[in-house]
């Protein structure tokens, strides 16, 4: 990461000091650099007592909404972070911490030197962008994932051993509840048409619809990451609602808790 976050970036923060008009926070991913959240950016409604929402030492996901480089001032918002963004950021952070620990395990297993560690880290990040992606690729492809990279043989072997056991890419699963019915004489035919056409139009994820008992259905999406799964579920729901309107059917959709 750079020296300062970019506008609209999601960041992990820790509440440092609370004042009547807001709170000073540290940016956990930027060496504790300070940012400020105004009381108006804490919650979507008016706040009488900020202490009802924040406490010192609290860890949160925030969105950077203004950066003044000249004044060295970073303003963040809590209310502008959606539930989907918060979950995705926390999952990303969890994966990064786990990848760092697995990398350390491989280093100890290979008894690597600082130079070997630095060289391997640089090579993996240059190719894959992050240790998370690198270890997941090694876990899935083994030796082929590090072919041609300048990584000491002992460390390469340790990375393969650790990654194949612990770093296989997990799937993200999200779901929603669909209520769908029609009063038309051919209502059953219309419902079947809606359910058959809409999910097939969504690409990039595995989508399934399960009958729960009239008029309830579950839409489930499984993808490589939470963000993609959320988008695919949203797209599928939008298409179903649109198709239902065209067919004169009644449709409602609500998000249910996902798991990863």
Overview of this protein structure:
The protein has six helices and nine strands; from the N terminus they run βββββααααβαββαβ. With 260 residues, the protein is α+β, with helices and mostly antiparallel strands. It has three domains: 10-81, Nucleic acid-binding proteins (OB fold (Dihydrolipoamide Acetyltransferase, E2P)), CATH 2.40.50; 84-166, DNA polymerase, domain 1, CATH 1.10.150; 172-259, 2-Layer Sandwich (Alpha-Beta Plaits). A hairpin with a 4-residue loop joins strand 4 (59-68) and strand 5 (73-77). Helix 1 (83-110) packs across helix 4 and helix 3 (131-141) crosses helix 4. The longest helix is centred in the middle third of the chain and has 28 residues, at 83-110. It starts with 9 loop residues before the first strand and ends with a strand.
Our measurement of the CA-to-CA distance between the termini, rounded to an integer number of angstroms, reads 26 Å
Structural class from helices and strands? alpha+beta
Number of spatially distinct domains: 3
Q: Rg from C-alpha positions?
A: 24 Å
CATH level-four homologous superfamily name of the largest domain: EIF_2_alpha
The overall strand count is 9
- The helicity comes to 25-40%
Uncertain stretches of 5 or more adjacent residues: none
Mean pLDDT value: 89
Number of H/I helices: 6
Output the strand order for the largest sheet: 3-2-1-4-5
